[in-house]
Amino acid sequence: MNRPAGGALAGRVAIVTAGGGRNIGASYSRALAREGAVVLIADLDGDGANEVANEIRAAGGQALGISVDVSKSEQVQAMVDRTIDELGEIGILVNHAGLGASVPLEELTEELWDRAMGVSLRGTYLCIRAVAPSMKRAGWGRIVNTVSRAAYRPGEAAARRGVAAYVANKAGIIGFSRAMAMELGPHGITVNCIAPGVMRTSGNYRELGYDAPPTLAQRQKAAEAEGQVLPPRPGDPEEIAGAMLYLVGPYGNHITGTVMHVNGGSYFPP
Questions:
Q1: Fewest C-beta atoms under 10 Å: which of 42, 112, 223, 229?
Q2: In a domain, 24, yes or no
């Protein structure tokens, strides 16, 4: 991991939801640890969270992995209480946990809708509500929520397969984040979002209907159909983690209530 001595986030305690596995969440966890933060990795897959935490510790960092369902308020509060008790006051929260329901409207049951909203939008709300007192006590906090380009413009191919619940919860997170930026700003807390584009991650390209990362020809065809600028390649999770570090680090002190689009030019927000 090659964590530098000290680091820009030395002494900070961070929580990353869905921070296990091998994709963006894990990259968030590793990046924070490289900069000296103590990281609580929360994931529904406790084994995945522990795997990333073990990797961080083996490289000289500090991390703890636990299993958490962020749609359950009691589990979220227990996560926050344990973090404060064992690691210290919380300075950074990265909300990455999310769930889509990629089915057409006629197949979008209330159960699927509620589960998607519960993990993504409700989970973001519960986590921010739970960490806010700790951040207020310190007079400092950084919150970053992962959203999606789809909240602004669902791709035609994805929309045909049905992404209404996914788009709705990501758009809801953006609005909630802006409200929180206004409410928590006087306490020294910033709240921002990151909207990745097409990523080199299995979940992302499968959502787009590919069995493997799309080829240049496939991306060219999709871009032409949807009127997009063709990105040179799918993004890497580490590039999203780099944007997150900017927002939680010293150079992002004066940024709040915004959405950082990290998409290689696949979408230009108005």
A1: 229
A2: yes
